[in-house]
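Worked example 3 (structure in, sequence out).
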């Protein structure tokens, strides 16, 4: 499939009648913004992998169309071998055109191999450039691989890189309109705060990243069904983190009414959460995991909001929140109860969900 996709990317206009020799006179710069450069790492294997992707895919796709065409047209192969053509791809770098075949290009299934090689902090400096190179080369990254990246960067404290990929979505191809990616991302913000016991600098950082992510989604169409910013799990995570921050740093004061405003927005969006819909039939680990991803931070956020100064004075808000807390507690408990002991490892979110109720 990757080969077919690449083939479609090379459906160029008919070749000019000018001789191949004319190509040797072209010295245009390539599109520097489209050709990523990589930071050397301590891993020779990673360095070699990144160099291969850059030489065989990213640079060819960053070249002007005429030069790119000459590399993939079989009739030009001999001339390129006999009369090498060197082009400037930046002020300090040149690239020699050579014959290429679609079968020799890196495959989409190899993307995961590069991502798995990234381990050290310095390795991850190459993440955004690598994803940008893939997008410019019309190499699609599946939602499942983006979710893998969210989990991996979240586990090592580098989740800000995913936010940056989303900010540069036109270059990296990451769109937060994909609900599965976004719910996983917001769960990582929750996890960051949970690991810090909802106190200190990590909570402030998690809140800042969640707000930045919400700002990115402000640029998406204002469609309740497709824009995740309207979803309870997004609003609930912002509520959770802002309430935790207010309790930790400001003694529970909500001077700008940020926390209580999030509570009101959450109440308005509640039907979208479908917290009253339970799974029936055969156990589905992925579905249960998804439901927990969407509900854990919402529950914690509502619990924390009840401790915020000003909440006790708003009787209408109290009356709206109390039944929702009860509903959500039952919903989460039933989801946890549905998980067979033998399948507990297949629902990663269950561990944090259990901690909400003091379960082990």
């Amino acid at each position: 499939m990757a080969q077919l996709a690449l083939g479609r990317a090379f459906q160029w206009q008919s070749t000019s009648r000018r001789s191949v020799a004319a190509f040797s006179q072209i010295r245009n710069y390539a599109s520097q913004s489209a050709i990523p450069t990589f930071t050397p790492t301590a891993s020779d294997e990673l360095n070699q992998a990144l160099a291969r992707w850059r030489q065989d895919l990213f640079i060819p796709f960053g070249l002007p169309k005429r030069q790119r065409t000459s590399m993939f047209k079989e009739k030009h192969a001999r001339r390129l071998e006999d009369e090498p053509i060197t082009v400037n791809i930046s002020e300090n770098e040149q690239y020699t055109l050579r014959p290429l075949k679609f079968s020799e290009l890196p495959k989409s299934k190899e993307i995961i191999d590069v991502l798995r090689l990234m381990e050290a902090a310095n390795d991850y400096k190459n993440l955004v450039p690598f994803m940008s190179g893939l997008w410019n080369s019309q190499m699609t990254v599946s939602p499942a691989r983006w979710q893998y990246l969210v989990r991996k960067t979240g586990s090592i404290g580098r989740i800000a890189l995913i936010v940056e990929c989303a900010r540069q979505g036109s270059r990296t191809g990451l769109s937060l309109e994909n609900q599965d990616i976004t719910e996983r991302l917001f769960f990582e913000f929750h996890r960051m705060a949970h690991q810090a016991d909802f106190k200190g600098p990590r909570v402030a950082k998690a809140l800042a990243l969640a707000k930045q992510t919400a700002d990115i989604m402000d640029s998406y169409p204002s469609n309740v069904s497709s824009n995740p910013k309207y979803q309870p799990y997004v609003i609930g995570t912002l509520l959770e983190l802002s309430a935790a921050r207010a309790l930790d740093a400001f003694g529970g004061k909500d001077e700008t009414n940020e926390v209580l405003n999030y509570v009101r927005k959450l109440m308005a969006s509640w039907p979208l959460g479908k917290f009253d819909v339970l799974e029936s039939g055969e156990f589905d680990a992925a579905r249960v995991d998804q439901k927990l991803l969407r509900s854990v931070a919402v529950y914690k956020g509502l619990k924390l909001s009840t401790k915020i100064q000003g909440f006790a004075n708003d009787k209408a808000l109290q009356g709206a929140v109390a039944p929702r807390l009860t509903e959500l507690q039952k919903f989460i408990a039933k989801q946890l109860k549905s998980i067979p002991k033998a399948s507990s490892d297949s629902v990663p979110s269950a561990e944090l969900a259990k901690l909400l109720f003091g379960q082990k």
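Notes: The first strand starts at residue 85 and ends at 88. The longest helix spans residues 315-337.
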